[in-house]
Specification:
Length: about 210
């Protein structure tokens, strides 16, 4: 199976172009103001306008009012919507776009039941559970909690880096991987720069996945 790569939490045109040139299949734009990787509509429009053909654009929302999502869609030509909150299946399906439902995985969560509930989703995005944080934590979860025969494609997120992505794919066999903090730039004090990507880290991660594709 050819594993797809999504680079999420992009805030700069140059980083989005670098991701596309390096072979990312999709890029993610965060429309959730509390996130340090959030973009404005103006930023998102500039990024999408600069992308070459055949790169899927994904907009991430967290329990947003329907009017907010509609306003973004009226200004930014997103291909896919990604919902990271407690949205119902009916809510997710109302915008006329393919959509992914993110689930934060922890022991006791019945992923098979969730897949049935969100059966109209294009995919399930499985992320780590951290109380009070809807995503982008940089934490990984126990990949063995993923049932082997979910009826929807799985996009794996949560703590993925160039160093562990091959192990993650071998363990979880996802349709795709979604990486944000694991490919971010590092400042002079060794701290991540949320929303700013490292071209070298993106290249390393995509190369690892590409080697699995061959």
């Amino acid at each position: 199976m050819s594993v797809r790569v999504k680079i999420c939490g992009l805030t700069q045109v140059d980083d989005a172009l670098a991701a596309a040139r390096l072979g990312a299949d999709a890029i993610g734009l965060v429309f959730y103001a509390p996130s340090p990787r959030a973009v404005t509509v103006a930023q998102a429009r500039a990024i999408v306008a600069a992308l070459p053909p055949m790169v899927t654009t994904v907009g991430l929302f967290v329990d947003a009012a329907a009017t907010e999502v509609q306003q973004v869609l009226g200004q930014v030509p997103l291909d896919v919507l990604q919902f990271h909150g407690d949205e119902s299946a009916d809510y997710c399906a109302r915008f006329g776009r393919p959509w992914w439902k993110a689930l934060r995985v922890r022991p006791g969560l019945d992923l098979s039941a969730a897949a049935a509930h969100y059966a109209a989703a294009q995919a399930l995005l499985l992320d780590a559970y951290v109380p009070g944080v809807p995503g982008g934590t940089g934490e990984r979860f126990d990949w063995s909690l993923i049932p082997p025969a979910l009826p929807l494609p799985v996009i794996l997120a949560g703590g993925l880096t160039p160093d562990n992505v091959r192990t993650a794919i071998d363990s979880a066999a996802p349709w795709g991987v979604d990486v944000s903090g694991g490919v971010e730039a590092i400042d002079d004090q060794g701290r991540k720069r949320p929303g700013i990507k490292s071209a070298a880290a993106m290249a390393a991660l995509i190369e690892h996945v590409r080697n699995l594709r061959s």
